[in-house]
Amino acid sequence: MVRPKKHLGQHFLKDQNIAAKIADALTGHGNYKHLLEVGPGTGVLTQFLLQKEYEVHAVEMDSESVVYLKENFIQLTDNLIEGDFLKLVFNEITEGPLCVIGNFPYNISSQIFFKVLDNRNKVPECIGMIQKEVADRIAAGPGSKTYGILSVLLQAYYDIDYLFKVPPGVFHPPPKVDSAVIRLRRNNVKQLDCDEKKFIQVVKAAFNQRRKTLRNALKTFTFATAPDEHLLTLRAERLSVEDFVHITKCVAD
């Protein structure tokens, strides 16, 4: 069976040591028993996941890859889903918690993390190899130029571990950028101390005009109570998750 070609912005991992390191990054945080691998491709990571004490599920959109996986990983066959990760209903895979892991396709990596965020009470741990630029953004703290919407929303519910960088040469074909592996582990915040939908709206509005101070970026919002005056003089990239929660609590219903 000829190995499938690159698809959907994916660069196939060929380095066994890197694949083993990604699998070894699993901590079992949240007591999950199920793994969901996104885009297994030729199964370089899959082989190491199958050695772990978890039930491995995989979702693959490319039909050539699905055929290859079925022929080479018989133990995965019953848990191999041919389809779009972004359209999955996680409860149809398992009623319990699961870990999302994989060499994520670059062109949907942010969408994958938003999907995880939407299922944050179902996904206690997520480990992904992604474009270094996106990893830097997710792990960035207040004051960084790379700190943005994804940083704030993920850090509100997850602790972020920036694990290691990955050079282009470990992929086929090699991408034109560096990659990195990050790990998200669900924190103790069951629910934010504010309206969570408004929180998302405030964060997005603030960063969509990130060159403006919060006073100007949030002009479309009506405040029931006055936010901390100092915060309104800052740009979005200077505010912590807690600062955004404070501002959201001041927004009128």
Provide structural commentary.
The protein is an alpha/beta fold and 253 residues long. It is elongated, with a radius of gyration of 20 Å. It has helices spanning 16-24, 46-49, 63-72, 109-118, 132-139, 149-157, 196-208, 214-217, 229-232, 241-250; strands at residues 12-13, 34-38, 55-60, 80-82, 98-103, 125-131, 158-166, 171-172, 179-186. The model has no long low-confidence stretch (mean pLDDT 94). It folds into two domains: 12-186, Vaccinia Virus protein VP39 (Rossmann fold), CATH 3.40.50; 196-250, Helicase, Ruva Protein, domain 3, CATH 1.10.8.
Going by CATH, what is the homologous superfamily of the largest domain? Vaccinia Virus protein VP39
Shape: elongated
In total, the number of strands is 9
State the major sheet.
Answer: 7 strands, mixed
Kindly, what is the distance between the CA atoms of the first and last residues, rounded to a whole number of angstroms? Answer: 59 Å
Q: Would you state the CATH class of the largest domain?
A: Alpha Beta
Helix content: 25-40%
- The gyration radius over C-alpha positions equals 20 Å
The largest beta-sheet arranges its strands as 4-3-2-5-6-9-7
Poorly predicted tracts of residues: none
The helix count comes to 10
In short:
With 253 residues, this protein is α/β, with parallel strands linked by helices.
Index terms:
single chain, Rossmann fold, Helicase, Ruva Protein, domain 3, seven-stranded mixed sheet, two-stranded antiparallel sheet, 10 helices, 19% strand, elongated
